[in-house]
Amino acid sequence: MDINKITAISAIVFGLAGMAAPLTHAQDMQGTVAYMNGGIGAGEQAKLRESAKDYNLRLLFSEAKDGAYVSNVKLDVADHHGKSVFSLATAGPMTNLKLPKGEYEITAVYNGVKKTTKVSVGEKPVSLSFNWAHQDN
After folding, report:
1. Domain count, the chain
2. Is-above-0.85 flag for pTM?
3. Closest to 73 (Cα-Cα) out of 83, 64, 63, 85
4. Which keywords accompany this UniProt record (predicted)?
5. Does 4 reside within a domain?
6. Which domain holds residue 31?
């Protein structure tokens, strides 16, 4: 085999190997709000827990007695004027947000059941858990 074929095959093999590598969960932005969302699987959960120190609002979504994590939560964060400053159609099971200091109303909807709470966000991180009763479909 000549050197050109070896080089071409090597480039293909290493390129495919790079595609198989796990993706690192990155921070996203929505307007001025930095966030990370995910947590399906141990790797994503570890990454979100590790990065939680960089966020001042940490949300966890779970279901029923066993606390099984849930995703597909419709999430909305409104400021003290009622204006939506952040929303996700499919949040969870873990969502970390970096919000400006202030008062917020958090609304989370899972399987049609809405939960709402108010929170004051500042420099110190705030952790909130939303838990829904198990629903057999």
Report:
1. 1
2. no
3. 63
4. Signal
5. no
6. 25-132
